From TrEMBL:
It comes from Bacillus cereus. It holds the Pfam family Phage_portal. The lineage of its organism: Bacteria, Bacillati, Bacillota, Bacilli, Bacillales. This is Portal protein. InterPro entries: Phage/GTA_portal. It comes from the Bacteria.
Amino acid sequence: KFYRKGATHSGLLKTAQPLNKEAKDKLRDAWEEANTGLSNAQRIATFSNIEQQALDFIQNTLSPILIQYEEEFSYKVFSFVEQKRYYLKFNLTSLLRADQKSRAEFYNIMLDRGVFSINKVLELEDMDGIGEHGDKNRVDLNHVSI
């Protein structure tokens, strides 16, 4: 059955809003035209959601494994008393950079609330600071106590 379909998998098309039969047929036909036939054979796949796939890999594959490593290392490296004071933790911040939109939203929130300075954000992005004025944490006037 797999080879009768040209060695391609069937899939699922999902839309944000319900479609009538005519719209469903048009969508299915457009999908099949773009992805089947000799002219589309051996084409390179493109991934518009590669950032989400990378994030999914970090959260669902890498993180559980690293948590096990952290616990095992802490158990074997530190004494019982030291385990109350010290711990080992993998820093996944650089791996989470794949999701640019979420990172930008996070930085905006941290800047608006005065948690991060502009230079701190630039440092996290491996960029040069803007000078001493960039070290000041700021909040807008909507967050100032009256």
